[in-house]
Amino acid sequence: MLEPFFIGGFLVSGFALALSVGARGWWVAAVAFPLGVAAYVGVGLVLVAMFMPTWPLLAFSISSITALVVFAVSRRAGVPKDMIGKFLVALGISAVVYLFTRFFNLVNWHTDSLFNVESSLLLVENLYTEVSASGASKRLIAVPYVNGLSAQVGEGVYMAAFAPLVAISIAAMVFLVLRARLLTGVQRGPRPEFFALAVALLAVLVLISNNRFVFHAFYVNSHLFFAALLVIIVAAFWSREAKIGLGLGSSGTRLLPALVAPALVVSRPEASLTICLVLVVGYSTINATKELTATTYASAAAIALWHARLSLIPILDGNVPPSSSYGLLFVGLVLFAVPWVMSKLNTQIRDRLAFFAEIGMWVLLLVFAVRDPELLIRSVYRTGANLLLGLGGWGLSLVVLGVVSLIAIVALRGQGDRILRFVVTTTIPFVLLLAYLRGAPYRVGDGDSLNRMWIQFLPLLVMFVAQRIVSGSLRQSPKHALSDDPKRENV
Question: Of 106, 241, 307, 427, which sits with the fewest C-beta atoms within 10 Å of its C-beta?
Answer without folding.
Answer: 106
